[in-house]
Amino acid sequence: MKIEEAYFSKRRKYPNDLFGYFLDLTVVCLAAFGGLVLIAIVSINFLSVLGRLFFFSSMVGDFELVEMGCAVAVAAFLPLCFMRKGNVIVDFVTASFPSWMTGCLDILGSLIFGLVAGFFGCRMCLGLKDMMHYKEETMLLQIPVWIPFLPVIFSFFVLSICCFYVAGRDARKLLLKV
Predict the structure, then answer these.
(1) Residue 9 lies in a domain
(2) Structural element, H or E, at residue 75
(3) What whole-number distance in Å separates Cα of residue 143 and Cα of residue 63?
(4) Domain that holds residue 73
């Protein structure tokens, strides 16, 4: 068996419905954006270390950029992680439950997670409004703090939609089994 066959032989299943397909495409693009942000963060750290090593001076405000970039990147990866069921599940209690019961608990967990993600998105909208109103800026670079709020809020609302979509998809599968 060739290496290509071992790694690429399993094709990823796409959602059957049009909404799920576009939601899947959205979360993949969002994760790609998060990956680009991470590359930018690593580049900033690398340049800062090089500056410290060769010029005895690091980049001014590098930690501010890394801080904002990490928040944006983490939020950008959450919807993809949830759509692919990549979250950590501690199932030592539910391992002995029947499959229909663990399915019901998964649906309940998805609904609760969707509500929490929507709540966070709404609260961050209010925080964005305050940050814009008071013109809060970072200490060294004087970057407006509200700028990284925009992609994070978008990510949380997409995460909320993903949670409700996954709950509906799992409920459909569970009802078809019964």
Answers:
(1) no
(2) helix 62-83
(3) 13
(4) 15-85+97-177
Tell me the two tokens of residue 90.
């501690």
Q: pLDDT (tens digit, 9 = 90+) per residue, 73-114?
A: 999 999 999 999 888 777 788 888 898 999 999 999 999 999
What is the structure's pLDDT at 1?
47
Determine, yes or no, domain membership for 114. yes
Of 64, 31, 30, the residue nearest 45 (C-alpha)? 64
In a domain, 138, yes or no: yes
Rounded CA-CA distance 152/124 in Å is: 8
Q: Which amino acid is at 142?
A: Q
Q: How far is 84 from 113, CA to CA, in rounded Å? A: 15
Model pLDDT for residues 40-55, shown as the tens digit of each residue = 999 999 999 999 888 8
Q: Which amino acid is at 19?
A: F
The half-sphere exposure of 54 on its side-chain side, counting CA atoms within 13 A, is 7
Residue 1 within any structural domain of the chain: no
